[in-house]
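User: structure tokens for this one?
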Amino acid sequence: MRPWLGAEEVAAVTEVLASGWVAQGPRVAAFEAAFATAQRAGHAVAVSSCTAGLHLALLVAGVRPGDDVVVPSFSFVATANAVVHAGARPVFADVDPATGNLTAATVAEALTARTAAVIAVDQGGVPVDLDAVRTLTDPRGIVVVEDAACAAGSTYRGRPVGERAEVAAWSFHPRKILTTGEGGMLTTGRADWAGRARRLREHAMSVSAADRHGAVLAPPEEYLEVGFNYRMTDLQAAVGLVQLGRLPEAVARRRALAAAYAERLADLPALRPVADPPWGTGNFQSYWVEVLPGSPVDRDGLLARLAAADVSARRGIMAAHRQPAYAGRGHDPLPLPATERLTDGTLILPLFHEMSAAEQDRVVDVLRAAVR
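Assistant:
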């Protein structure tokens, strides 16, 4: 992955530097408004990272210390970390082997008497079937937080991903299609949740920093609860505004590259590329391929072949339950066969906006030579 950045982002940052207001301020507010409009969300709250957004989402949704939160193990470790930050316990559920996402069935297996929430991830930009999960959880009063870290530009049932979630969190890390360097966003349709998230992101002050700095005589502030420093800067938001304007073009380009991969790998029974699910379209933030049993070369062997050709691929999504940080965390883990199959058998291929036909040819040629 290479970020798609250019002169417009440079000009936007330069303008912010010249303004003298570089911390959280008017550009952050503009980015929040534009992102909420693009995602058809009632409210957007800019934060320092998606992990911060997930943490705040759990807090505003009422997750308390001692609660259980169902999460996929097949996800970057930050998904589970946010649960621990909230004082709750992550309970790892398995995923659908086709999409890499939670399903209603895998969530049902992981529910406990203390389950307060579920974090449903749009893994690699593939939209989770959120309605199916909420059909299970809503009658039980369990909140679903959508981890849309990778999913800006993906769709679910013809609408932007995240629109049907009670609360969602987004990442703008450089590996994401829309980047601000670091940074994230929380979106929700609930004004009370958004208001509390805005306070918590800046130490739970009763008066925002922007309001204080914009007044000649600043009003006194109170600290209503123990909060956090999860703010985004105007420098980041200025980049985000440019990137948001480019998002449709960026997604179209990635989908075209993904279609070219799929077409050229279709006759190789040893490989199964990721694809759109029936309920939506992915942005192909990551293009992963599963190396199936019977392949003449396994996943690690294929990575070695690619590296020998100077092609930088990566192992597939991690399994958080295998990490030392989550060994023996207070419960007997469920069997996670699909998670372990995907973690051990998938790799992520190069995919970036300015990828040339010759570069994609190199990747495909190595794959075809290795598995035929």
